[in-house]
Amino acid sequence: MVAKRKKIVEYENAAEEEAETLQTVTSQITVALNAEYEEEQCACYEDDPIVLPTMSKEKLRK
């Protein structure tokens, strides 16, 4: 009975570690995608004299 309980605890700990790893990877992917999207948005408006100052103000607010 004790051996079964130990095995269950091992599985629970492994599952928690996997969940934390998955959460970390998901967060890293989200950050990377957001940065890529932001770069693309800025690149679209680089030559636009009206939009660029507006985007700069928005970035300052963040």
From TrEMBL:
Superkingdom in the source lineage: Eukaryota
UniProt protein name: Uncharacterized protein
Source organism of this protein record: Paramuricea clavata (Red gorgonian)
Taxonomic classification: Eukaryota, Metazoa, Cnidaria, Anthozoa, Octocorallia
